[in-house]
Amino acid sequence: MEPVRLYSVALDGNPIAESVWRRALSADEKGRADRFRRAEDRHAYTAAHALTRLALGLTLGIPPLDLTFATTTGGKPVLTTPSAAPDFSLSHTDGHVAVAVASGAVGVDVESIRRPRLDAALAETAFGAAKAARLGSDPTSDSWRAAFFATWTACEAVLKAEGVGLAVAMERIEIGEESAVLNGRHWHLWRCPLPPDHLLALAWEDAAQIDHSRLDPAALASWCAQTLPVE
Prior knowledge:
This protein is an alpha+beta fold. Helices cover about 35% and strands about 30% of the residues. The chain has 2 domains: about 10-85 and about 215-230, CATH 3.90.470.20; about 105-205, CATH 3.90.470.20. The protein is built from 7 helices and 11 strands. It is globular.
């Protein structure tokens, strides 16, 4: 059984590294990156999409820029070239990006646990009353915040793996420590803290080990430079 290949990059806002990552993007992706108003959002988008192309190109033995993509009705990105390909998932937020590639369905989500404006009402709206109650009684505590993001990232990863996005309520997902169930479909579940203040969750269907490669911006830029032609 092929492992689930997981790649994560801790970002630092380095514009020189970002200029190298852009070489892995299609013209359309470069245009989308340039439309972000916040430099942080552009930086994360560029890293995530460069990493996706590099990871899939390595897996398939295909030049990263030869890959083409489409989006399903549920919002999940899929490969169209080649037609027979592994599943993949990507996630980006301020400070971190992640990409997962697997032979079966897979979903990944990464979030900063320092996001503001968390409260019990938000948790109940997102997760339903039963899940929200399990977070604890004090929304101002670190333990409540940690439990919120452990639940949020796990739910997001499952929804991405299912390919349904937020069209399905998180309340319907049964979340355990190492597994999840949605509509009778069972998922393996794995969480990983990413220093200094991010949390990653991975959901995948087929039994497999996880091969996690942690990169820094320079390593991602080096991968681009070694793989792609000079512009």
